[in-house]
Amino acid sequence: MNNSMHYKIFFSVASLFLSVLSTKAQEVLTVEDAVKIALENNFEIKIASNDLKIDQQNLSLANAGILPNLSANVTNNNSVLDTKQTQLDGTERELDNARNLNLTYGVALNWTVFDGMRMFARHNQLKELEKLGDAELKLTILTKISDVITTYYDIVQQQQQLVALDTTIIISNVRITTATNRYKIGKASKLEVLNAEVDLNTDTTAFLRQKELYANTKILLNQILARDPNIDFKVIEEVQIDENLLLPDLMILAEKQNPQLQAQVINKRIAELELKQIKGDRYPIVNISSGYNFTRSEASLGFITQSSGRGFVYGINATMNIFNGGLQNRNERIAKLQIENSQILIDQQKLALETQLSTAYQTYMTNLQLSKLEAKNEEIAKQNMDITFEKFRIGTITTTTLEFRTAQINYINAKVRNSNAQFQAKISEIALKELAGNLTFQ
C-alpha cells in the first residue's frame, strides 16, 4: 500500500473514529431543543411573562373604577368623664365617672355612576397596556430565540473549525511519518523532519486554542438556556441556510409583526386614551351612596340615657370643576403633544425598520454569494492539497517542504473561511427574520 493510500485511509478512519466517539460521549442538541429549553428556562423570558400576567391582572372593571365599592364599618367610641350639667331652670346635676357609649356599624355602598367617561377610557387603556405587555414579551422571546440560534450556529462553526484543525494535525502526522521514512532511506534531510515536527506543534497549539473557544461558546449557550454551564453536548454538523428570503415579503411581515413597531402603535393608542381621561375632568362626577346602619348611644347623665336606630341610608353627590387656574387646558395640550410624539416615534421606527431590513438584506445577499464562493474554494484547495501531497510523497518537491506546508495551510484556511462564510450567511438570515418578527427554529 503506497503512502498516498495510507494518508487517505488514515484520514478517513481517524475522522470517523472521532465522530463516533464524540457522538457516544455527548448528547446531540438540536436547535429546536435549544429554543424550547430557552423558552422554559430563560430568566428574562420568565420576567417578561410575569410582567404580562401583572398587566392581565390589572385589566378589570374594578381597577378601571367602573364597579361600586361595598364596605363594612364598625365604630365604637366610649368615654368615662366627671360630668356637670346646668339645666334650663338653673338646677345643676353632677356625676363622677359618667360612662358614655356611641356605637355604629353597618354596610356602605359607594358608586361613581358618571365621571365624564373616564372610567371607560381607563378600562380601554388597561386593555392596551395588556397588549403592550404582550408585545414586550414577544420582543423578549424573539431576542432570546435570536441569541440562542446565533450562539448555536456559532458553536456549529466552532465545531467545524475544530474538525478542520484536527484534520491538519492528521495531515501533519502523516507528513512527519513520510519525512521520517524519506530521511531513513536517505531521500530527505533531518531538517525536513524537524520542520514537520515544528509545524505539527504549531497545528496542535491552534487546535487547543480552538478547543478552548469551542468549550467556552458551549458554556455561553448553557447560560442563555439558564441551565448548568457544565452540561456537555454536541451540535449538528451542517448549517442549513434559507436562500429564498425576499425583501418585499420581509417588509410586509415587519410592518405587521415587528414587536418594536407594534409597541409604538400601542403607545399611541394609550396616549389617545390618556387624552380622553383628561377631557373627562370637564364633566361632573356623580356618586351615589347607600347603606344599612345600626346606631346605639348610652349616657349616664342627661335627658336621654339611651337611644338606638337602624335602617337604610342613601344619598347622591355631584361635583364639577369650574376653574382650576387653567390647568385643564394645559393638561389637554400636553396630552395632545404626547399623541403627536407617539406618531413621530411610529414614523421613526418604520423608517429605522425599513433601513435595517434593506441593509441587512444586502448583507444577506452578499453572504450567500460568499458562502457559495468559499465552498468552491475549499474544493479547489482540497484538490491542490491532494496533488501536493502526492508530489511530496514521490519526492518531486525538491526545493523544501514549503510548498507542501503552503498547500496544507491554504486548505485549512479555505475550510475555516468556508465555515465562517456559512455562519455569516446564517447570521444574516437570522437578523432578517428577527426584524420581520418571523424567526423560526431552523
UniProtKB/TrEMBL annotation:
Record flagged with keyword Signal: yes
UniProt-annotated location(s): Cell outer membrane
Transmembrane segments annotated in the record for this chain: none
Main location: membrane
InterPro entries: OMP_efflux, TolC-like
Region forming the signal peptide: 1-25
Keyword entries, A-Z: Cell outer membrane, Membrane, Signal, Transmembrane, Transmembrane beta strand, Transport
Protein family per UniProt: Belongs to the outer membrane factor (OMF) (TC 1.B.17) family.
PANTHER family referenced in this protein's UniProt entry, alphabetically: OUTER MEMBRANE PROTEIN TOLC
Protein's UniProt name: Outer membrane protein TolC
